[in-house]
Amino acid sequence: MRFQSYFNTSVSLIKKYDGSVPLAHFLKQYFSQNKKHGSKDRKFISHLCYCYYRLGHVLKELTPEEKLKAAIYLCNDEAEEWQILFDDSWNEWSENLNDRINFIQRKYHSFSLPDVFPWQDELSETIDAATFAASHLIQPDLFLRIRPNKEKAVVEKLQSNKILFKQLSSTCLSLPNSSKIDSILNIDDEAVVQDYSSQRISEFLKLPTNDSRLPTQLWDCCAASGGKSILAMDVLQNINLIVSDVRSSILQNLKQRFAKAGIKKYDSFVADLTKPTSNIQHSTFNIILCDAPCSGSGTWSRTPEQLFFFDQKKINEYAALQKKIISNTIPHLAKDGYFLYITCSVFKKENEEAVDFILQQFPSLQLIKKEVLKGYEMKADSMFAALFKKA
């Protein structure tokens, strides 16, 4: 009966939720108002809600109750405690996702995997649409980036606390998403919580180090939480870091995070880069890192409610915003400098078409490398990065 109650509560929440706030915030508010739910209750109810939105835009004709059953079936390797919700017609439960997808296709003839992520025509080059759509049915992993000279300490702490992990490289670890590490590691000092694809931005940052003229001034123009800035400091080391963002509150949070990370020497300023910039403290920069505001469509397996409520018109709005930011930042790039453009989007209008715009509007820039970082193959976010050099 307990799991039937979880199911009923989840259906009630799904019917009330309108996507106006992140699902995590909505659930947190509900639980704070309903103290009867213990920690296990909150875990199971939240899991069911997230499963529902992982289905994206498939099976829209079903009732929330029936669609949630399909979601539970697709998003879980085993029936386990959820078996009570299903009759004998659901007995083909397989650990293999493709087998479960095939079963749902037989049970519901309207089911079409691409409809999980229906904007196939908008996808960037090289993305496998079917594999990408299926990836939303799987919860991504938690990824850690080990900071310089901290590998031994981090690995030993995780092992001694019996935390399961896979070491993907000397600095990258993947862990189950539910891993509790805050009390075990000194986050931002010893290791940074950073998605696998975000960590791969180091491959682009390393390219300027091959230049005999090592960068000195690096401007992280849309710094946000500062993860790319910390990465740049760890990879390039010998740089003067300048960060900016449109909100002063972001920079205040950044100050606290940099303190944890041991970054004491840097400059910061507030800037709305959709407008011509006048308050930039340095006239030119050797590297401009532009992690542009975007649809976030490469991260929706972590926040599937955004997949469910996304309005396709937003793609053009983000693309226009990105072009404004690009146009107002590249003029501050020094001769022989590097411009690194990054999004966590999978839409070509935000990615390849932004590259085309840069090359058309700024003929002095040469494209060094561009790549869709297909995190969906690694239970990670998908991103796009392009590195340019100014002649």
Automatic annotation (TrEMBL):
Assigned keywords, A-Z: Methyltransferase, RNA-binding, S-adenosyl-L-methionine, Transferase
EC number(s) recorded for this UniProt protein: 2.1.1.176
InterPro entries attached to this UniProt entry: MeTrfase_RsmB-F_NOP2_cat, MeTrfase_RsmB-F_NOP2_dom, RCMT, SAM-dependent_MTases_sf
Keyword presence, Repressor: no
Protein's organism: mine drainage metagenome
Signal peptide positions on this chain: none
Pfam families per record: Methyltr_RsmB-F
Residues annotated as domain SAM-dependent MTase RsmB/NOP-type: 119-391
GO biological process, any: RNA methylation
Protein name: Ribosomal RNA small subunit methyltransferase B
MF-aspect GO terms: RNA binding; RNA methyltransferase activity
